[in-house]
Amino acid sequence: MKDVWILEDNEMYRGELERVVSSFGFRPISFGARNVFLRSYFESGKENVAGMILDNMVPVFDEAGCFPEKNIGVGVIDELERKGLLGGLNVALYTSDNMNSEIARVCDMGVSYHCKRNGNDWVGEFLDFEKA
């Protein structure tokens, strides 16, 4: 069984993605925080990864409260690229962000973009589930 790594801070979306990924015969490995996601991925064997689904806005908490930090998923993609780990990896940004120049830039690198408002009917095709 291949793994799908998920970075999604919202438990509702994360749970739904886990359910859909599992329904196609993949094992979801999910995280709500960027640093834990990256550290875990870099420490893993990485050979059993079918894809990654990344949220692009993850909340940051400070003394002023909570606010969304934009382009977190883009930052993960950039980090994978810097380490030479992006090539051949199936990556999707699944976000409520509208298309912006940073998302367009990583889409030019082969990343797919999916808006949360449109649901998750795209997951099976993204995972090419017949090969699972």
Keywords, please?
132 residues; alpha/beta; Rossmann fold; two-stranded antiparallel ribbon; 5 helices
Kindly describe this structure:
The protein is of the alpha/beta class and 132 residues long. It has one domain (3-131): Rossmann fold, CATH 3.40.50. It contains 5 helices and 7 strands; from the N terminus they run βαβαβββαβαβα. It has helices spanning 11-23, 34-43, 72-82, 101-107, 123-127; strands at 3-7, 27-31, 49-54, 58-62, 65-69, 91-95, 112-115. The strands form 2 sheets. Strands 2-1-3-6-7 form a 5-stranded parallel beta sheet, with helices on both faces. A two-stranded antiparallel ribbon has the order 4-5. The mean pLDDT is 87.
Strand order of the largest sheet: 2-1-3-6-7
CATH level 1 class label: Alpha Beta
* Terminus-to-terminus distance: 7 Å
The gyration radius over C-alpha positions equals 14 Å
**CATH structural architecture:** 3-Layer(aba) Sandwich
Average of per-residue pLDDT values: 87
The main sheet comes to: 5 strands, parallel
Helix content: 25-40%
**Would you count the extended β strands for me?**
7
Strand content: 25-35%
CATH fold description: Rossmann fold
So, the CATH homologous superfamily? Response regulator
How many structural domains can be distinguished in the coordinates? 1
Shape annotation? globular
Helix and strand element order: EHEHEEEHEHEH
Structural class based on helices, strands and sheet pairing? alpha/beta
Question: Could you name the ranges where pLDDT drops below 50 across 5 or more consecutive residues?
Answer: none
Individual helix count = 5
